[in-house]
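Lab notebook page, bench 4
Experiment: in silico fold of construct C2
Operator: M.H.
Input chain length: 382 residues
Purpose: comparison with the prior construct
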Amino acid sequence: MSAGPVFLTSRLQLRILDESAAPAVLNYYLRNRQFHQPWFAQRPDSLFTEQQQAKNLAAEHADFLTGRAVPFWLSLRSDPDRIIGRFAATSIVHGCFNSGFTAWHLDKDHLGTGLAREAGQAAIPLLFSDFRLHRLEANIMPGNFRSINLAENLGFRLEGFAPRYLKINGRWEDHLHFVRLSDDPPAAAAEPPLETGYLLVRRLRPADLPSLREYYDRNLGHLYAWNPVPVADLGQADGWRLLYAALAQDPGGARRLDWGVFLRDRPQHLVGTVECRNLLPLPWSSCEIGFSLDHALTGRGLMPEILTQVINWLLVRYGLRRITALCCAGQEKSQRLLELLGFRQEGVFRQAMRLLGGWQELVSLALLRDEYHPAVRLTSQT
């Protein structure tokens, strides 16, 4: 069945196929037709025939021989005749570009087994070394969190947001644009989450964007009462584009950090956010903090624990001397919470923000490192 080199991992075979493999490939597509369809363009019934699959395989094998594609088909070493996925680089351009597009899909019966990651970890070094590519691109719909997680685990970084990029199932869909370069440094290990009671607080990633959108949808009215500008922006594609860019920043040089608050027993369910804006090194050594919590969890005393963990992390990780916050003059609960942690009121900005048709005053509060009063006993951050 193989018409080219065969590469082995601990569990997989990665092979280049030609038209002789049409029955096996057709069987794979038929088994997964409905499962794959949410992420594919509309596909006519004629595609799901052995004749059409033979034509497609012959064409992609010709592209492989001319250097325009490297389509790896996946099968288990223990069952080599059964196709269970694909990891391909296509539309390759050589010369001064040396770039291609990557795409992958896996059999529904093998989700959560780590096989897609195993295939990518084998294929990508081959594409960079044996096939001499410099740049790999992957475009993924924001709701496809499995593929986003895989891209991040394989070292791709979010480079941009493409509105209405591909027509999927008859609708023009936005896509996230991920890139990996051959000379990218190894990805830094993810920071461990901060734990508080039955909550986890961790840095938001592009893969969390579906959860973030659901959080804003659930709490639109609740957040709108005090945060009209960000909520209004996030109702438009441009607002989400800016948020994608913020989440993609390098943590080592970021001027903004975003945390999500998740339930420990439902780690994809976002119930709050903490933002660190205008993070500045010496001579300022300061940042501004903002926060929100799901309306269903307010009044339970959770936010003091959450902010204690985040503020402690900021003071230790960045050695900050000063953290500021702004509250609407009528936002008494947030002011009392911040004062509990040691923030002091420093002034009032008159007519600083337009809210619900009127200009509102903003109260400026600040916390100095030496005046910090943790609301709860801190646990180890290691």
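Observations: The longest helix spans residues 302-318. The longest strand covers residues 79-93.
Next step: discuss at group meeting.
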